[in-house]
TrEMBL record:
InterPro entries: Adenyl_kinase_AK6 (IPR020618), P-loop_NTPase (IPR027417). GO terms for molecular function: AMP kinase activity; ATP binding; ATP hydrolysis activity. One of its GO terms (biological process) is rRNA processing. It comes from Lactuca saligna (Willowleaf lettuce). Broad-specificity nucleoside monophosphate (NMP) kinase that catalyzes the reversible transfer of the terminal phosphate group between nucleoside triphosphates and monophosphates. Has also ATPase activity. Involved in the late cytoplasmic maturation steps of the 40S ribosomal particles, specifically 18S rRNA maturation. While NMP activity is not required for ribosome maturation, ATPase activity is. Associates transiently with small ribosomal subunit protein uS11. ATP hydrolysis breaks the interaction with uS11. Residues 34-57 are annotated as: NMPbind. ATP binds at residues 14, 16-19, 110. Interacts with small ribosomal subunit protein uS11. Not a structural component of 43S pre-ribosomes, but transiently interacts with them by binding to uS11. This is Adenylate kinase isoenzyme 6 homolog.
């Protein structure tokens, strides 16, 4: 049994996973692991996907890389997918959600356009990440949180920080 919880922060790109995870890490002293950065820095991929404009994540390499770290507990994993991590890794799965027009503005600001933009907006409309999370983890550990504004983010960080504070491995 780990002495500190592991948490997954997931959601469509642009919903605020990295910003929220960084604030959470600061508030809780847990370790923020951004899967995208890890994949790039440790080359845990099978090359670049020209069409989707992202690395082709090698899921086995990512899981091998993180196994020991996750066993130790105290991690915030930040990723826009959640179905390939072992279920036993996480004590809580947070799915961030953002209203379409707000997400649209965030993604265009990030330089997304065309199919990449449309795909991500559709991903959010159809709640793909929430469904994926519910399919992959026990429903009682999955929580959806609205991430439209800075107020939302501050409230989410406060709520999760309180949960981490009261978490115990026996619960
Ligand atoms: P993700 O990691 O999910 O792709 P980011 O954390 O990189 O998302 O956030 C994308 C952009 O949206 C950033 O410019 C960030 O400052 C902004 N942002 C994220 N969450 C919020 C929020 N709840 N309210 C306002 N702006 C936000
Ligand atoms: Mn991110």
């Amino acid at each position: 049994m780990r002495s500190k919880p592991n948490m997954l922060v997931t959601g469509t790109p642009g919903t605020g996973k990295t910003t929220t995870s960084a604030a959470l890490a600061e508030a809780t002293n847990l370790r923020h692991i951004n899967i995208g950065d890890l994949v790039r820095d440790k080359k845990l991929h099978d090359g670049w996907d020209d069409q989707l404009e992202c690395y082709i994540v090698n899921e086995d390499l990512v899981c091998d890389e993180l196994e020991e770290i996750m066993e130790g507990g105290g991690n915030i994993v930040d990723h826009h997918g959640c179905d390939f991590f072992p279920e036993r890794w996480f004590d809580r799965v947070v799915v961030l959600q953002t209203e379409n027009s707000i997400l649209y503005d965030r993604l265009t600001k990030r330089g997304y356009s065309g199919a990449k933009l449309t795909n991500n907006i559709e991903c959010e409309i159809f709640q793909v990440l929430l469904e994926e999370a519910k399919d992959s983890y026990k429903e009682e550990i999955v929580v959806a949180m609205k991430s439209d504004s800075v107020d939302d983010m501050n409230r989410n960080v406060a709520t999760i920080t309180e949960w981490v504070r009261t978490w115990s491995s026996t619960s």
